[in-house]
Amino acid sequence: MSKQFYLMRHGQTRFNEQHRIQGVCDSPLTELGIKQAQQAADYFKSKGIVFDEIYSSTQERACDTAEIVSGRRDIIRLKGLKEWDFGAFEGQQEYLNPPLQAGGIGYGDYFVVHGGESNQEVRERMGKTVRELLEKSSAKTILAVSHGAAIAQFFRHVLSDPPQIRGMHNCAILHFCYDGAFDLLSIYNPDDSSFVYQKEEK
Hints:
Layout (H helix, E strand, L loop, with lengths): L2 E7 L4 H4 L13 H16 L6 E4 L3 H11 L5 E2 L41 H18 L4 E6 L1 H11 L14 E6 L3 E8 L4 E5 L4
Parallel strand pairs: 1-4, 2-3, 2-4
Antiparallel strand pairs: 1-5, 5-6, 6-7
Helix pairs in contact: 2-3, 4-5
C-alpha cells in the first residue's frame, strides 16, 4: 500500500534569527516561526490534506511546529528525527561552520572530532527512523516534522537522483509517495507560496 508522507522543517527559531548553530541544542520559535507554521497549516487545509498520524523530533521547535500545523496534541515524538549533532559547535555563530563539501554530504565527518555526528550517521539514523515508522504504521497520510540538515541528508540518502537544492526554508514541506521506496513529488515553501521542486510528469 502506498503512503503519502510529508516531511517538513520546523519554523524559524531564536537561534535561526541570531545565526547560531542549532543542532541538538534548542531554542523556541519566534513570532515569524509561528507564522510560518500557520502558513503551512493553511496550505495543508487548502489542499484538503488531513493527517492520520503526526510525528516530530523530540526537540521543542519541531514539536511546537507540529502542534501548530496540525492543531493536535497527539504528536508522536521520535529521537531519530532530531537535527544533526554539531558537538562543541552547538550554540556558536554560524560563520564558524566549515564550508559545505561537494556531493551533497554537507559537512561530512568534520564534527565527529568535536563530539558530533558525521553526515553518514545522520543519513542512517534518519533513514532507519523514517522507514520504521512508515513500515509499522497503517496510516495512509503521515506528517513528520524534523530539521533542515537532517532532512537534506535524508532525501539525499533515500533518493537515487536527488534534486540539487541547497538550504531548506523554515517550514519547507517535502511530499513523498512511499511504497517501499521513496518518490519525492515536491518541495514547497509556504512562507512565499512557491515550489522549489516538482517532479516532472512522464
